[in-house]
Amino acid sequence: MAFWTAGAVGLAIAYLLGSVPTGYLVGKLLRGIDIRDHGSKSTGATNVLRTLGKWPALFVLVGDVLKGVSAIIAARWFCPWLYSELSPPPTASDLQIWVPWAVCLAGIAVLLGHSRSIWLNFTGGKSAATGLGVLLAMSWPVGLGAAAIFGVVLAMTRIVSLSSMLAALTAIVLVCAVEHPLPYRLLVIGGGFYVIIRHRANVQRLLAGTEPRLGRNGRDAKAEA
Length: 225
What we know:
Pathway: Lipid metabolism; phospholipid metabolism. The protein is 74% helix and 0% strand.
């Protein structure tokens, strides 16, 4: 019972961290606008870049990554602490079994919080940056590998959505290729496909050859990663 109580608290913390609407708040504070009324209508960093500029976008990007990092840290450290406070201290084997599952659930919760924020009527971004934060905190080699692919593809194509989706696929391959607990693998596989599904409109534009690239003017704000 104590573990489930701790797990529920951890999930709530992770979801609320993810729900912090960084892009929305930046739009309101800097220009008094609802970022969801502009460009792709997403709260992510790419839409902020096209609507408000590079420095606000950088702030949003870092903030969204930190949300993912914070959720995993909370799950990895807070849940075992709370578990030990609510019951006799857990054994090392208990923690080895349950903490990875707590991390898995927290990762899912923070991704859902970012894309379905309770403060924005369950709208939000596409969870790519927050997903990167989850990867870096959970398994930094997988996170760095995904980030490297994102950077290379973006440099070659200047298409953020394509870069994000290929980074998500890379993370799935890496987490399966290197030894990781089963819950970590399930998180990355589920989270990776969730990020791709969130880009389904971008996929349609990619197939039609109409997906805009960074640095172009006019209608390029209609796609966002």
